[in-house]
Design a protein that fits this description.
By secondary structure, this protein is of the alpha/beta class. It has one domain: 3-Layer(aba) Sandwich (Rossmann fold). The protein has nine helices and nine strands. The strands form two sheets. Strands 6-5-4-3-7-8-9 form a seven-stranded parallel sheet, sandwiched between helices. Helix 4 packs parallel to helix 5 and helix 4 packs parallel to helix 9.
Length: 260
């Protein structure tokens, strides 16, 4: 078997070789956000805005026909056979059975498990990847995949096309998506949708800290914790998502009647 050269994606472009994938290679996010010398931005950033605009357009175009969907987040480091992997796969399959597409970050680990559960169940499996220095691209269980250069464009797609967020055990990336969703719902920037944390033992420390420190010191209101649901049950995850959709549709109908 031939030796596999390191590879990575730059947006939709596949690059291979040490010179393309070494530790000193910058992503597009780094190039945009890194501090540069005086006046350097005048020669690069205005033009980069065109690429950002194009990435939004490509994402909106590719996802325009996405049915009701749920985003599943979780660790990229969890291997098949791990209980969290198998539970993620089961949740994705149950969501498909309930009529939802599944969206993940498109990578390995629990993202792969989500895409795998959706695809194996005959549902729509979507992966929204991101350019990272050592990332080799989307997992092979993705049916519709997009590789993004910019995190903020990718985040917009998660929020715009999801009716719920399901957070499995994960690292900084999972915490980032969780905090983003909580902030958007709390501030009313988006219509309230379910945010479900799966794994009571894993998430208990965070939930205790939110209650004891943030609520306890008046940083957030006690009812803000109601934006989160923590569970170990696959059935409860699906019930929460389905019930929320029914409530939303009923609210839309009620407001529509009120305008007549």
């Amino acid at each position: 078997m031939a030796n596999r050269r390191p590879s990575r994606y730059r947006g939709p472009v596949l690059l291979r070789g040490e010179d393309q994938c070494g530790p000193d290679v910058q992503t597009q996010d780094q190039q945009l956000l890194d501090r540069r010398g005086p006046g350097g931005w005048q020669h690069t950033d205005p033009w980069r805005a065109m690429r950002i605009q194009a990435e939004f357009i490509e994402g909106f175009d590719a996802l325009a026909d996405t049915p009701a969907a749920v985003s599943i987040f979780g660790s990229a480091r969890t291997a098949p056979g791990d209980p969290h992997y198998e539970q993620t796969r089961e949740i994705a399959a149950a969501l498909v059975k309930a009529g939802y597409a599944v969206i993940t970050g498109g990578g390995p680990g629990l993202m792969e498990a989500g895409n795998r559960g959706a695809q194996e169940s005959g549902g729509r499996s979507i992966g929204l990847g991101i350019e990272l220095p050592m990332e080799e691209g989307l997992n092979h269980w993705v049916d519709l995949g997009i590789n993004f250069r910019y995190f903020f464009v990718r985040k917009t797609m998660f929020v715009k096309y999801s009716q719920a967020f399901v957070c499995m055990p994960g690292g900084f990336g999972t915490l980032d998506e969780l905090a983003e969703a909580l902030t958007l719902v709390q501030t009313g920037k988006i219509t309230r949708f379910p945010i479900v944390l799966v794994g009571t033992e894993f998430w208990s420390g965070l939930v205790d800290w939110l209650r004891d420190r943030l609520v306890g010191e008046g940083m957030v209101d006690p009812e803000d914790l109601d934006l989160l649901t923590v569970t170990d049950s696959v059935d409860e995850v699906v019930r929460i998502v389905v019930d929320s959709r029914a409530d939303t549709e009923a609210d839309v109908r009620t407001r529509g009647l009120g305008r007549q």
